[in-house]
Amino acid sequence: IALSTATSALDTANCAACYLAHGRLSYILNTTKEELELSKEANDKKAQKVDKVQKAQTKRWLKNEYGVALRAALEEEIEVLCSRDQMTTTAALKTACQQFIEAQEDDLPRAVLDEKPSGPFCAALVPGCDGDAVKAAVDAHGDTDSAAHAAGAAAAREVRNPARKGQERAQGAVDQRPD
Fold this sequence. Notes:
Structural class: mainly alpha
Distance between the termini: 77 Å
Strand content: under 5%
Helix content: over 70%
């Protein structure tokens, strides 16, 4: 009976780790897209001013740069994901997170970049991780405090790009100059 209880705890921890990791990386992806959108729009406008030969090359380069930036943001988050408060609420969850990230280091970011839903993704990787089992797993191992999650998300943005705040202030000062 102890073995089945340990296996059950590990399965729920794996389910929670998959669901929470996918959710966190999806959040990082969406946040990064929002941050890059202004930069991408400005670069696209500049690309329109370049002659046709350079324009095609510039456009391909800009599209590739955008995708690389999204992947890099996910890779940065994966490096620290299992040490986040949300992933350390139980020892089983922290262990499951580390094992899950190691086993899915290529498939997880690809699934998030392809915007595959967490439900089918996790159900395919963790037997029985669907429907009510996901909720039970997250409730058993996860941090359900959305305020703590939001604070962690804001901190993650600052950790990824600490200069951004200063740049925004400086840009605001530049924008307010009289013409």
